[in-house]
Amino acid sequence: MEKEALFTSVATRERGVTLKSPREIESMRQAGKVVAQTIAALVEAIRPGMKTADLDDIAVQEIQRLGAKPSFKGYMGFPRTICVSVNDEIVHGIPGDKVILDGDLVSLDVGAVVEGFHGDSAVTVGVGNVSPAVTELIDVTREALERGIAAATHGARLGDIGWAVQSFVEERGYSVVREYVGHGIGRALHEEPQVPNFGAPGSGALLRKGMVIAIEPMVNIGGWQTRALDDNWTVVTADGSLSAHFENTLLITEGDAEVLTRV
Description:
Blueprint: H1 3-10, E1 12-14, E2 17-19, H2 22-45, H3 52-65, E3 69-70, E4 83-86, E5 89-91, E6 105-114, E7 117-126, H4 132-151, H5 158-171, E8 175-176, E9 182-184, E10 191-195, E11 212-215, E12 218-220, E13 226-228, E14 235-237, E15 243-245, E16 248-251, E17 258-259
């Protein structure tokens, strides 16, 4: 039996959602490790005075060194290997000549492919001497992701994840971006289901053992509304407020979710 046919035969599809086989999950674990190690290298390297393109170069070298391929380069025409979004940029920032300054808020979004399967993760860091507002925004967004992961259990529903994120964020006076959401992931970078960072408990699709999803809160100091820049990729806050973004790829199990994008 050919490899492609084997992958197809052992996966289960229900209403557009693919339940991953043990073999597929192992490939995704490997992709997740590549993503996690690449993010760690970027966080270690980032300094005031760097260009965002310098970070992209580091990611290219690290992903290649680890024997993987980037998920983002060429995806729907995206020109670089990672997304680097600064201050009021929420997601999909294109690395280039922009210089990172002391005190900047920088989101790093990385995807990698191993044996045809993707891993996807993002972190936001403060560079140099950051304000208390930046530190608090980062902390709230990181914890919102953890709340979402804790809600992602077999038998729960997507709305449980969204409510866990939304309620935590809004209770602290921040807003959750609604126009961009998390997603299923596997052989394709974006699969069903969509995973909103808002919702009502007990609503939405049922979570099943073997599903792999990416949860990615995008949290703004100001309003949740967004707009796209003229490059047709970079998304910024409509009111110019700061935004943070954290993401992990995780496997739904019978117990706690297994986070695939952590070392």
